[in-house]
Every structure is written in C-alpha cells, then in structure tokens.
Amino acid sequence: MELVEALQRQATACEDLGSPMYAELLRLLVDDYEVGGVSVQVLEGYDGRSFGEAIGLRLLAAVHGLVLSGTAPELAAFYPSTGGAWDPVLGWEAFEQVLQARIGEVRSLLTQPPQTNEVGRSAALYGGLLQLVAAVPLPVRLFEIGASGGLNLRADHFRYLADGTSYGPADSPVVFESAWTGQVPSADLRIAERVGCDIAPVDPLTDNGALTLTSYVWPDMTDRLARLRGALRIAREVSADVRHEDAVSFLRGLELSEGHVTVVWHSIMWQYLRRPDRTAIETRLTELGAQATPTTPLAHLSLEPHRVLTHERGSDGYEYRITLQTWPTGKTRTLGTASPHGQDLVWGS
Ligand SMILES: C[S@@+](CC[C@H](N)C(=O)[O-])C[C@H]1O[C@@H](n2cnc3c(N)ncnc32)[C@H](O)[C@@H]1O
Fold first, then answer.
1. What domains sit in the chain, N to C, each tagged with a CATH number?
2. From the CA atom positions of the chain, what is the Rg in Å?
C-alpha cells in the first residue's frame, strides 16, 4: 500500500477510536510528506508496506517515547500524556523540529513493530472468565499467548463497574467506570497460575519497558493512559511469568492439571500469526481438548477480529468478538463484542 494512503487510513482509524490529536498529526504528516518535508527522509524505504505494519503508528510511538523520556520538552508541552495540551499549529512545528533534530533515533525506532499492551481489553477477557468460572467453578490456570507485557494476566486485580454491579478490588488503581453492557455473574474467581508468552515480551517492571508500553498509547486518550499506569503499578505487586517464546511452542509445552480449569486466552494477536502457526495452535488445542475431563477442563477465550460485511461508518470491516470454547464438550460460544481497544463491550450480542 502507498504510504500516504496508509497514513490517511490510520488517521481515520485514530479519529474513530478517539484520538483526534493523532488523526490531526497523521494528516499533517501526509501534507509534509507530499510537499517533500522532513518526513520523506524519516520514512524513506517504508513506502509500499502493508497497512498492518502500522508505519504511521511506529513513527508516532517513536516520537512519543522521546517525549515521555523527558528529552523533547519543547514537544512535551503539546502532549496530554505529559501534562501538555495539543495545538495543531505550534504542536506540529515542535513535532517537525524533533524529526529534524533526531532523525537517526526516530528511524532506528521505526524498525520495531507496535507493541501495545492494551489494558482496556482485560474487561472482555475478565468478563469472559467470570462466565466460564460460573459454569466451571474450579481454580484457574491462566495462559496467555501474545501477552506483550503480561498486564492483562492481572485482570482480576482491576476494578470493573457495570450496570450497578462492581467486580474486582475496590482499591484497584485500574478502574473501568462503565465496563460493559449486559449481565456477567459474580463468580468466585481464583487464579492459581499466570503464565504468558510473546515473541517480543516487554518487562513492565523496568523503566524502559514501562516507557515502551506507554509510548504506544495515544497521548490524548487519557483513560487508556490512566489504566495502563495503574496496571504498571499492579504488575509490581502481582507477579506473572511472561516467557520469550512463540505461541506454538508455548502451547506444545502446556498440559492440563487435575482440579483446575486451564484457560488459554489471547487478544488482538491472531492476525500476527502465520497461517501454519494458527493451524498448529488449533491442532494443539483440539489435542488438549480431547484429554480434558470434568476435573481437568480446558477453555479457549479470546477477543479477536472477525471479518464482516458492513458499510457502517467507522467500521474497519471487522467485528471484535469475545469467543469461548470449552472442553470436554468442545462447545463454542460468542459471548459478546467490543471495540479493538476493548471499549463499547456488549455481552450477549
Ligand atoms: C497487538 S499486540 C497485543 C498484545 C496483548 N495481547 C494485548 O491485547 O494488549 C500483539 C502481540 O502478539 C505478539 N506476537 C505476535 N506473534 C506472536 C507469536 N507467534 N507468538 C507469540 N506472540 C506473538 C506480539 O509480539 C505482540 O506483543
């Protein structure tokens, strides 16, 4: 895809998902690129990449990282994530100056694919887990593939408010004020194990890891930032083991355990898998499912996009479904839908 087209499409996506600042910045970047400004040098070699490679978001995250690290104070004044206020005229001038002055640094950061660990998605995973545990009341062994920083492996330590009911600890620094629409049972959730894998895990306990994860959140989305910052605090108290391993080999090493429900979950990672890896994962889950019994049950819970035919404005052509498959029955259910970052969550849809 042509770079300009990809940046324009990304701008629309940012606008639809609630970041007017990034929508504006990406459009200014397109203007700059089209008149041969500094962005042509910065983005040299990136024309023709697929939209999924998210080159625009890589560039924005690279610059956001510089802002968060405190080394671009003139630009930080325009970033809400550092207490500033976005201004399209003065903000763009400062952004352009950072690109001019730090072109080498920015280009070196462009090589890394986006590494978002979206805490907002935990509402979908947690709500799905409660529905599972209400039906299968056993302690949970949680295994996440594509876990990034593993923040969502602590989903039971976040607070969810919905339809007059609350879930999770009252003093949690992560609060979902209006987590979802629809009924979710208040099950007795006990998590016995929290293990994840990722081909590029980020350690949320290091300053650098925390900065990397924060740099991928869009700076004017203050709710997302607040949730991420709260989850980074929780990660210091609740441990989770996130391994540097690909999903296929991780699941090949997984076994069921007597007296536990073994849950494999994931969010917005399936699209990054090669087709043979997807098949290998499905095969392994079927194999494990065949070994499952009422006292060693298995569940596969996910929030992932499914292509749909729609002409609705703002739709990217996908429905983000929460699906749950459980064994020994092997039954699959769609529990609900959400937006890509986990908002607008509706159960039973
Ligand atoms: C968009 S991020 C989502 C992270 C997290 N699941 C969330 O929802 O916040 C996709 C993640 O999948 C990871 N990933 C991609 N391919 C993978 C593979 N083959 N095995 C394990 N992780 C993979 C990436 O490194 C990245 O951390």
1. 3-110 (no CATH), 119-347 (3.40.50)
2. 21
The tokens describing 246, both together, are 């690909």
Expressed in angstroms and rounded, the spacing between residue 213 Cα and the centre of ligand 1 is: 13
The predicted model scores a pTM of 0.93
Is residue 20 packed enough to be buried (19+ CB in 10 Å), middle (13-18) or exposed (0-12)?
Answer: middle
Other beta carbons less than 10 A from residue 253's beta carbon: 11
Q: 347 has which bridge partners?
A: 336
Residue 167 near residue 175, CB atoms below 8 Å: no
How far apart are the CA of 85 and the centre of ligand 1, in A?
Answer: 31
Ligand 1: residues whose CB is within 6 Å? 115-118, 121, 145-148, 197-200, 246-247, 266-269, 272-273, 277
Ligand 1, atom 9, residue with closest C-alpha: 117
Residue 314's pLDDT is 58
Question: CA triplet 82, 86, 90: central angle to 5 degrees?
Answer: 115
pLDDT at 311: 60
pLDDT value at position 1? Answer: 75
92 alpha carbon to ligand 1 midpoint, in Å?
31
What is the Å distance from ligand 1's center to 89 Cα?
36
Q: What is the pLDDT of residues 314-330, one digit of tens each?
A: 566 889 999 999 999 99
Instruction: Please list the ranges in the chain whose pLDDT falls under 70.
Output: 310-316, 349
pLDDT score recorded for residue 313: 56
Mutate to test the pocket of ligand 1, among 269, 270, 274, 339 (most ligand atoms within 8 A of CB): 269
pLDDT of residue 312: 65
Amino acid 110: pLDDT: 93
Residue 315 is predicted with a pLDDT of 63
CA 53 to centroid of ligand 1, rounded, Å? 13
